[in-house]
Amino acid sequence: MDTDKSYRVFCVYRDMGRDRTLLAAALNVYGDVILKRSSRSTPEAPTHVRNWSSAHGWVERARAWDAHQEEIAQRAFEEEAEERSRLQAAAATQVQTLALLRLLEVLPDADAKEALAAWRDAAKLERAIRGQASDVTGHQHQITPKIDPRTLSPATLRELAQKLESGND
């Protein structure tokens, strides 16, 4: 088990990242004074620091620390990516409703086919953002509508869009 002194040097060593060295950790903790004690032309970590590292498995512990930090960073990245996808999908859903309402506003005489095409484009975008198939008629789902949307009047489409926007069924 590390002593307070050895743990202090270990923490500096551990936190140096992949380019860590015992000498750099010792220099950080003790300063240049360790270089003056050495008679070698190539400086090295003091013997007691090397002994601590060997006795307490610093190299393995530091590698485990690095792996743990990478897992944390990867998890955070994945959570951020999921949150971005949720926000983008929610925005695409809003765009679907707004596109339909705007289309009907700009083109009050638009037929149901044009309105449905605009809605489908936004729905495809939403599904793409969510990582789902862009075509829901394939092997995943076969939906048989009770009403053929191509036969709906613009007024009926407006009413449906308003219900979608307000969240009512």
Written account of the structure:
This protein has 2 domains: 4-56, no CATH class; 82-166, no CATH class. It is rod-shaped, with a radius of gyration of 32 Å. Helix 1 packs across helix 2 (22-30), helix 5 runs antiparallel to helix 6 (112-129) and helix 5 (58-106) packs antiparallel against helix 7. It has helices at 4-14, 22-30, 33-37, 47-56, 58-106, 112-129, 154-166. It is mainly alpha-helical and 169 residues long. The longest helix is centred in the middle third of the chain and has 49 residues, at 58-106.
What is the strand and helix layout of this fold?
Blueprint: H1 4-14, H2 22-30, H3 33-37, H4 47-56, H5 58-106, H6 112-129, H7 154-166
Helix pairs in contact: 1-2, 5-6, 5-7
In brief:
This protein is an all-alpha fold.
Q: Descriptors for this entry?
A:
single chain; 169 residues; mainly alpha; 7 helices
